[in-house]
Amino acid sequence: MFEKNAYSFGKTVHQPYDETVAQVKELLMQQGFGVLSEIDVKAKLKEKLGIDFQPYIILGACNPNLAAQALSAEPNLGVLLPCNVIVYKTGEKETAVMAMDPVSALNLVDNPDVEKIAHQVKDLLTEALKSL
Question: Considering the entire predicted model, what is its pTM?
């Protein structure tokens, strides 16, 4: 079942964290996204603050074709890219996966061309997460 709030959507799956991270990357790739960045939040919080945190990763996902279209329509849009997808451990064999809602985020831009692209991106992200 999908969870949703004003800025993201996703689901909790009953599988281990590492397996989920690998699967999310593969599913994003199948929908035309590349992962441009990976931020290991657990490692960074430990390194910088000495805090023990649950496994948590931020994947910076980008669909190059749609990003090119969006940037052509709105050059300053790069400040809102890429689409972040987070994966974090919620239990022994339970993992949450949430994606930034590009429609909500890109509503900040008053450009109908960008809005149309945002809906395409959301559809692709939704399709990827449905497969989990």
Answer: 0.94
Q: How far is CA 37 from the centre of its chain?
A: 11
Residue 94, class by beta-carbon neighbours within 10 Å (0-12 exposed, 13-18 middle, 19+ buried)?
middle
Q: Which two tokens stand for residue 108?
A: 């900040």
DSSP calls for the chain: --EE-SSEEEEEESS-HHHHHHHHHHHHHHTT-EEEEEEEHHHHHHHHH------EEEEEEE-HHHHHHHHHH-GGGGGG-SEEEEEEEEETTEEEEEEE-HHHHHTTS--HHHHHHHHHHHHHHHHHHHT-
Domains of the chain as residue ranges with CATH: 3-130 (3.30.310.70)
Q: pLDDT (tens digit, 9 = 90+) per residue, 33-61? A: 999 999 999 999 999 999 999 999 999 99
Cross-strand partners of 94:
91
